[in-house]
Amino acid sequence: MNLNIGIVGTGWFSKVHGDILAETEGARVAAACGTSMEKANALASRYPGARGYDSLTAMLDSERLDAVYLCIPPMAHEGMETELIARGIPFLVEKPLGVDLDGPCRILEQLRRNPVITSVGYHFRYKQSVDQLKALLKGQTIGMALGTWMGSMPGVAWWRKQEGSGGQFIEQTTHLVDLLRYIAGEVEEVYAAYGNRIVQNQHEGVTVSDVGTVTLKLSSGAVANISNTCVLPGAVGEVGLSLYTEQGILAWEPDRLEVKSHGVTTSYSSTDNPYAAETAAFLHAVRTGDASRIRSDYADAIRTQAVTCTALESSLSGQPVRVPEL
Fold first, then answer.
1. Residue 84: helix, strand or coil by DSSP?
2. Is residue 310 classed as helix, strand or coil in its secondary structure?
């Protein structure tokens, strides 16, 4: 029996997930929801038999859906999750969970009262290179971690507004914060410094910071620093996380892992598709009720959200801030 899946959002990530679903045995994209019928129908036309809708309520009232993918901007959350929880429909939601922590906390309370299967799009957790990294770290003690998310400013208008995206650390660099949590454990305290150096002079209406660095103190005693910028030209950038242990350096990038230990450098490559693995884990949970393969559900992902939102708070106060316990 096919699982009937709905997709909310019509951007690039909706197509990524939709195309994977279209190639997955036992699943089909049954409906697409957008901010207009034109956008919804355009996405739906990619998938045989799918229909377009311009509201989530209309889609849910008209279709018998087994699950929904939410591929929406940060400022558009909460109302949609609330409706899905009320109807008992499992959902996979793209990161981040919102522009702040208040909305996600309200959703978490709803999930505690009315549990449904959830998955959050922290796809790095499903990379083979991350599995390799975790295996290599067994028996080692992480002393320090350094992360970088350096790139250009996305062209979509909502990303450039603080109230639209929450800023780069909340919207993009959250992937590295989540990976740090997954690899090295929980974060207790952060101290952040953000700045506006270049982009606000290049484009109108930009209210997000374009450079930032965050120091993170982990419950293990390890210390980390994650820095980001969106001032670079489009073809230039780097994303990675390096771990420093008593046995050497493990430098991770999405498709590459380099290990330097006792004068020997070993490299591993990884070209797998983590989005496909993420979808396989989610659909298995929807079909069987076994959520053990999901590596980031809503209750876990909100801890990453807490770290990134606390970093914003620290950047505004100029003081170290403890990450709230949720």
1. helix
2. helix
- SS3 (DSSP) at 24: coil
Among candidate residues 230, 118, 244, 236, the one with its CA nearest the CA of residue 180 = 244
Q: Which two tokens stand for residue 4?
A: 């009937």
SS3 288: helix
Q: Give the strand pairing for 321-322 and 256-261.
A: unpaired
Pair of tokens at residue 81 = 């999750």
Residue 323 is given by DSSP the state P
Which amino acid is it at 322? R
User: What burial class does residue 288 get, using C-beta atoms within 10 Å of its C-beta: 0-12 exposed, 13-18 middle, 19+ buried?
Assistant: exposed
Contact 104, 79 (CB under 8 A): no
Q: Nearest-CA neighbor of 142 among 231, 220, 73?
A: 220
pLDDT digits (tens, 9 = 90+) for 241-256: 999 999 999 999 999 9
CA dist., res. 12 & res. 6, Å (int): 16
Tell me what the pLDDT averaged over the chain comes to: 97
Angle at alpha carbon of residue 275, lines to 271 and 279, rounded to 5° = 135
Q: What is the per-residue pLDDT for 270?
A: 84
Q: Are 14 and 22 in contact (CB under 8 A)?
A: no
H or E element, residue 108 = helix 102-113
Q: What length does the chain have?
A: 326
Only one residue has tokens 């909340």, namely: 170
Tell me the DSSP string of 242-256.
EEEETTEEEEEETTE
Residue 195: half-sphere exposure toward Cβ, Cα within 13 Å: 10
Residue 182's SS3 state is: helix
pTM, 2 dp: 0.97
Phi-psi region of 146 (alpha: psi -120 to 50; beta: other; left: phi over 0): beta
pLDDT for the residue numbered 202 = 87
